[in-house]
Design a protein that fits this description.
Number of strands of chain B: 15
CATH class of the largest domain in chain B: Alpha Beta
Number of strands of chain A: 12
Radius of gyration of chain B: 18 Å
Structural class of chain B: alpha/beta
Largest sheet of chain A: 8 strands, mixed
Order of helices and strands of chain B: EEEEEHEHEHEHEEEHEEEEH
Strand content of chain A: 15-25%
Largest interface: A-B, 55 and 46 residues
Radius of gyration of chain A: 22 Å
Number of helices of chain B: 6
Number of helices of chain A: 13
Shape of chain B: globular
Oligomer: heterodimer
Order of helices and strands of chain A: EHEEHEEEHHEHEEHEHHHHEEHHH
Number of domains of chain B: 3
Strand content of chain B: 25-35%
Distance between the termini of chain A: 51 Å
C-alpha cells in the first residue's frame, strides 16, 4: 500500500468506527500518568502520551485470566475457557510493539498457548512513532526500538496537520480502508515525514555505554559480579519491575473454589521472579532464595537468557522498570556498571 | 475448538498403595491404553479445587498394562490432597512432558544408579525398563540410600533387585533401627564397596538437593566421565511447557530441557545444584 494520510480530525471518527466492531484499547490520562484503557469516548484518547504505567501486554495476557471452569465432587470435570474479544490496540509505541512480538514468540513456540494466540489473532495493532523521547529513563535507541519497520498492522507518524499511515499487514490495509477516510500522501507530506524522522534521531540519547548486542556475552562473564549483591541489598522484592515490563510474562496458576466447594475456576495470574516463593518447591528448597540471585535472574533474562531461547534480547528499552523502582534500581546503570568494570 | 494445553484430562486412580508413612504409590488408568512416556518424564497432576504440580512417572513403559504409576510424598497442598484420595477417584493429568533418560545412549553400557530417598521414584521407571531389557545392558549396579528403614520405597522390588544375579543392589540408611541389619550411613558410604569399569559406565542419580554434590564427587572419583552422568532435577512448575518461567535454571527450562540433564552439559550452570 502506498503511504496514506489521515487528517488529524479523522482520528476520532476512525476510532469511533472501529468501536462498532472492536474493543479499542488506547492510552488515556490517569492523574499525571497514562494507562491503556478500553475506549468509551474517542475524545479521551491521548496519542500525545509519554508512556503508560503498564504496557499493552495486559490486552493479550490479562493480569488475571480464566483458563478453565470445573466442578468438583464424585466425578470432577473441567472445561476450557476460551473467550476472544476482537480488539484494536490504538497508539502503541514501538518499544511496546517489540515487546508484543517477543510475547508472540514465547506463547506460540513449541506449545501453542491458545489462551494467548487466539486473542492475538483477533488483536490488531495501530502503533505511533515517537518523535521525541518520553523521558530520561527510556533507552529505546540502545535497544533498537525507537522506530519499527514491522510488528504493526498500521503505523502512524504525526506531521504538522496530518498523520501519515503506513500499513504493515493486509489486515491493517483493510482496517484503514473499511473504517478510515485516508488519502494518499502527497510528495510534500512524504518529504515532511522524512524530515521528521530524520529530526527525531538526535533528540534521543544513547544510555548504554556499549552496544546492546554485547549484552549476552557480557552477562555470560558476569554471573558472579558483585553488582548482584548490591542490587539485592537495595531491592525490596516488590515485583514492580517485572509487573511493568513489556517482556515479562511469567505466570502463576491457582484454583478458586466457591463457598459450597462444588465448583470453581482455574485462573492464571501475572507472577514475578522477584517474589521470594517464585522458585521454591513444596519440600522447602528455594532455588533462588536471595534477592541478589533474583535480581540477577531478571537482568540475565533481559540481556541473555531470553536471547538464548528466542534470538531476541528480552529488553525493549522502555524504561518502565527504572521509573517504577522505589529503590532506584536501574537496569541501565547496572548494565553500565558491569560494562565499565569488565576486564 | 482446540483444546488448551493447560486443561488436564480426568483419569481414574485404580489403586493406591502406602509405601511409607509419607509416600503413596498411585496407579492411574491411561485412557488411551498406553501413556507413551519415556522413563524420566513427568506429568502435571491436578486435583480440581486444590491445584496442580509436576510429578515424575515412576513406572516403566515396559510394564504399562494400560496404566502408569506416580509415587507421591505428602509435602504440599496438592500432595496432601492426593494422600486423602481413595481408589476410584478421578484426578486431572496432562503430559508426559520433558526430556527423559537417553536410553539409546545407555544400551551396551554398564549402568550405575544412585538414587537418594524419593529420588528412586523417577529412577525406578528406568531401572525396571533396563531389567525388562536386561540383555541390552552391561552390568547393572544400584546404590540406594534412604533416611531410615521405614523410608525405603518399593520394598518388594528392592527384594527382587537384591536377589537377582544380574543386578548388584546395595542399600543403606542414614539411621538404622532394631529392624535393620544392613548398611548404615549416607549413600556415599556405598561407593567404596563397588568396583566398576568407569569408561563403560553410565551413572544416573536423583535425590535431595544436598545429595548431588557428594554423589557427583564419588562418581567422578570413580573415573566416570562427566558426559556419562545423568541427573534428574526438581523445580517448581506451573505449566510444564516452557511458558510460566518458574522452573528456569538460568537459561534452561527444567520442564523442557530436563528434568533429566547430562552433567557435562549442566555443570556450568551454577543455579542447577
Amino acid at each position: 500500500m502506498k503511504l496514506q494520510v489521515l487528517d488529524k480530525a479523522e482520528i476520532s471518527p476512525l476510532v469511533e468506527a472501529l468501536m462498532e466492531d472492536y474493543r479499542v484499547v488506547a492510552p488515556h490520562a490517569k492523574g499525571s500518568k497514562f494507562t491503556f484503557e478500553t475506549v468509551t469516548d474517542p475524545a479521551d484518547l491521548r496519542l500525545d502520551y509519554d508512556t503508560t504505567i503498564l504496557p499493552p501486554k495486559k490486552v493479550l495476557q490479562p493480569t488475571k485470566d480464566r483458563l478453565a471452569t470445573f466442578t468438583m465432587g464424585e466425578i470432577p470435570q473441567i472445561e476450557d475457557v476460551l473467550e476472544v474479544t476482537p480488539t484494536v490496540v490504538f497508539g502503541t509505541h514501538t518499544c511496546d510493539l517489540k515487546g508484543i512480538q517477543l510475547l508472540d514468540e514465547v506463547f506460540s513456540r513449541d506449545f501453542d498457548d491458545t489462551k494467548y494466540t487466539a486473542q492475538r489473532k483477533e488483536t490488531f495493532l495501530i502503533s505511533i512513532e515517537c518523535l521525541s523521547p518520553c523521558d530520561e529513563n527510556a533507552f529505546c535507541k540502545d535497544m533498537g526500538t525507537m522506530t519499527a519497520n514491522e510488528g504493526f498492522d498500521l503505523h502512524l507518524t504525526e506531521l504538522d496537520d496530518v498523520y501519515v499511515v503506513d500499513a504493515g499487514t493486509e489486515a491493517g490495509e483493510e482496517l484503514l480502508a473499511k473504517y478510515g477516510s485516508a488519502r494518499e500522501a502527497t510528495e510534500a507530506e512524504k518529504q515532511e515525514l522524512n524530515q521528521k524522522l530524520g529530526a527525531k534521531w538526535p533528540k534521543f540519547n544513547y544510555k548504554l555505554n556499549f552496544e546492546a548486542a554485547k549484552l549476552p556475552a557480557m552477562l555470560e562473564a558476569s554471573f558472579n559480579h558483585p553488582i548482584w549483591d548490591d542490587m539485592g541489598e537495595r531491592c525490596l522484592a516488590c515485583g514492580s519491575c517485572t509487573t511493568v515490563c513489556p517482556t515479562c510474562y511469567c505466570f502463576n496458576v491457582a484454583d478458586e473454589v466457591d463457598m459450597l466447594l462444588t465448583q470453581g475456576t482455574r485462573e492464571r495470574y501475572w507472577d514475578s521472579c522477584q517474589l521470594e516463593e517464585f522458585a521454591a518447591v513444596a519440600g522447602g528448597e528455594n532455588f533462588r532464595e536471595g534477592r541478589a540471585a533474583r535480581q540477577r535472574h531478571r537482568l540475565m533474562r533481559k540481556g541473555k537468557y531470553i536471547y538464548e531461547k528466542f534470538d531476541e534480547l528480552g529488553c525493549v528499552g522502555c524504561g518502565r522498570c527504572v521509573r517504577t523502582c522505589v529503590a532506584k534500581i536501574s537496569i541501565v546503570e547496572s548494565f553500565n556498571t558491569i560494562y565499565n568494570g569488565r576486564k | 475448538m482446540t483444546k488448551s494445553i493447560y486443561t488436564p484430562e480426568m483419569m481414574s486412580v485404580l489403586e493406591i498403595e502406602e509405601l511409607t508413612p509419607f509416600e503413596k504409590l498411585f496407579t492411574i488408568e491411561s485412557p488411551n491404553g498406553e501413556l507413551g512416556h519415556d522413563p524420566g518424564q513427568f506429568m502435571m497432576v491436578s486435583i480440581l479445587g486444590v491445584g496442580e504440580a509436576p510429578i515424575s512417572i515412576s513406572s516403566s513403559p515396559s510394564r504399562s498394562n494400560g496404566s502408569f504409576e506416580l509415587c507421591v510424598r505428602r509435602v504440599g497442598d496438592l500432595t496432601n490432597a492426593m494422600h486423602a484420595l481413595e481408589s476410584g477417584a478421578k484426578i486431572g493429568l496432562r503430559g508426559p512432558y520433558g526430556e527423559g533418560f537417553p536410553i539409546a545412549k545407555m544400551r551396551g553400557k554398564d549402568l550405575l544408579f544412585a538414587p537418594g530417598g524419593l529420588g528412586l521414584a523417577p529412577l525406578r521407571s528406568l531401572i525396571n525398563q533396563v531389567i525388562d531389557e536386561r540383555a541390552s545392558f552391561g552390568r547393572v549396579t544400584i546404590l540406594y540410600g534412604a533416611k531410615d528403614p521405614e523410608a525405603l520405597l518399593y520394598r518388594d522390588e528392592l527384594e527382587e533387585w537384591l536377589e537377582r544375579d544380574d543386578v548388584e543392589c546395595l542399600i543403606t540408611v542414614d539411621n538404622g533401627d532394631e529392624t535393620w541389619d544392613g548398611n548404615v550411613g549416607v549413600i556415599t558410604t556405598l561407593f567404596p564397596k563397588i568396583n566398576i569399569n568407569p569408561r563403560n559406565t553410565v551413572a544416573i542419580t536423583c535425590g535431595p538437593p544436598i545429595m548431588y554434590r557428594f554423589v557427583l564427587m564419588e562418581l567422578l572419583g570413580k573415573g566416570i566421565p562427566e558426559s556419562q552422568i545423568y541427573l534428574s532435577l526438581e523445580r517448581r512448575m506451573k505449566c510444564g511447557v516452557g511458558k510460566c518461567g518458574h522452573c528456569q535454571i538460568e537459561s534452561l527450562y527444567c520442564c523442557q530441557d530436563g528434568p533429566v540433564f547430562n552433567y557435562a552439559e549442566i555443570k556450568g550452570y551454577e543455579e542447577a545444584l
